[in-house]
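ugh ok fine here u go
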Amino acid sequence: MRNIVLIGLPGCGKSTIGKALAARLKRPFFDADVTVVEMAGETIAEMFAKSEDYFRSRESGTIRALAQKQGVVIACGGGVVTRACNMEALRQTGTVVFLDRSVDDIVASVDTTTRPLLKESAEKVRRLDAQRRPLYQRYSDITVPVEEPFAKTVQKLAEYFSAKKNK
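structure:
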């Protein structure tokens, strides 16, 4: 059974939607950001304090490990698409879903003080969207608009993957 891989901007709902989707489909759930912290033995903030490249290297190792699993739901960090090797690994064993949530909705609902790449401002989210949207579109197998409440998105995805049996 193929993995379900969720990508999108920070704050688009990957972790929340992924956890609920995994429960609904009775699949294991992995949050790549949580897993990278466990594997590295450092917080994301500590890794970013060294450098973004340092964090991205740790993240790539985590992605390789997660991509080797089967039949799981993986919520990736927003910047996973910035390294092609990450997406190549994930696409070998998974169906990649771009959770497309509007920048305005993200800015309205996300506490940017707790997100290393979003600390600067709402404008930072807009810049990330401009930089990363083409990558999310390139690497995704399907794009799903994310609207409030997240339960609607979970329902759409559960119906899609149940019908497909994702095999």
